[in-house]
Amino acid sequence: xxxxxxxxxxxxxxxxxxxxxxxxxxxxxxxxxxxxxxxxxxxxxxxxxxxxxxxxxxxxxxxxxxxxxxxxxxxxxxxxxxxxxxxxxxxxxxxxxxxxxxxxxxxxxxxxxxxxxxxxxxxxxxxxxxxxxxxx
Length: 136
Known about the structure:
Helix content: 40-55%
Oligomer: single chain
Strand content: 5-15%
Distance between the termini: 24 Å
Low-confidence stretches: 130-136
CATH architecture of the largest domain: Orthogonal Bundle
CATH superfamily of the largest domain: Winged helix-like DNA-binding domain superfamily/Winged helix DNA-binding domain
CATH class of the largest domain: Mainly Alpha
Number of helices: 5
């Protein structure tokens, strides 16, 4: 994994460290960052996204506290070994629940039908660099 895998939006109302925590948590949960994957250093991420290194350090520390990352002396951070059954489809869907609720509310406010929403979402899912077929 490299630092540019992360998509950080400075203009977002969500704090930068939470963006990092959320993205890495989802990548790990989906198995796109398997156990043992070395993460880019704090400095690499900070430099790649022009953000404060303390922001990245805070995100890594939170992920470590959640048991998703582990610190390797002299090597940085890596994805921790998974607990059995930790990455089910339902767990991954549950992590999307807040965003899905917000999307559903906005679609209702804009009077967009479910089929229209699915049609708009399908190409976004297909074009995603991290999308892959999953049959869980």
